[in-house]
Write a structure and sequence with these properties.
globular; 30% helix; Aminopeptidase; 8-stranded mixed β-sheet; alpha+beta; 6 helices
């Protein structure tokens, strides 16, 4: 079952992250989702969890990208995603992403952005070429990993959209 995550879920979310990633990667990524969940109402994030057997076994968080006031585009960044090792390859990721796509599309959001493996996120509709229209706030360590997915029919043609992000993602080492 998919539901909104709250601060009451942080222990389960931590368990998911430390059983999805290497220790080093979990130490880098868990604080991001923890801060996003904690500040969710103030920063207008979307934090969803997959609950199974009364525990969160998958978690995803999207945060807004902040564009110039005159911008014609809106977007959210897929900031964190993890599914506990035991529950991987059971459709949890696709269900979390599809629920987020629907919820954000219903709110009128134009695009989703992600920084990650194109062969992985490409399965969910993210495209490297489309990502080139959205200029992140920090230099990317791996430019090929920056991707986007359009939720609306907004035409972006040759436009370049610079943006800033929430505090949890305002760390150049994450990029």
């Amino acid at each position: 079952m998919i539901r909104d995550l709250t601060v009451d879920d942080l222990r389960d979310v931590k368990y998911v992250f430390f059983n999805s990633f290497t220790g080093e990667e979990a130490l880098r990524t868990y604080p991001v989702i923890s801060q996003i969940i904690t500040k969710s109402p103030q920063i207008m994030s979307l934090c969803l969890g997959w609950e199974q057997e009364k525990r969160i076994v998958g978690a995803i968080a999207f945060t807004p990208a902040f564009f110039d006031i005159f911008s014609v585009i809106s977007a959210y960044i897929l900031a964190s995603l993890a599914v506990h090792n035991t529950y991987q390859k059971n459709g949890i990721t696709i269900n979390l992403i599809n629920k987020a796509k629907k919820d954000l599309s219903d709110k009128g959001i134009d695009a989703l952005l992600v920084y990650g493996d194109p062969s992985y996120y490409g399965k969910y509709g993210f495209e490297v070429e489309l990502g080139k229209h959205f200029i992140p706030p920090y230099k990317l360590q791996y430019e090929f990993g920056w991707q986007a997915l359009m939720l609306s029919s907004t035409q972006i043609e040759n436009a370049k959209f610079h943006f800033t992000c929430v505090e949890a993602l305002s760390d150049a080492t994450l990029w």
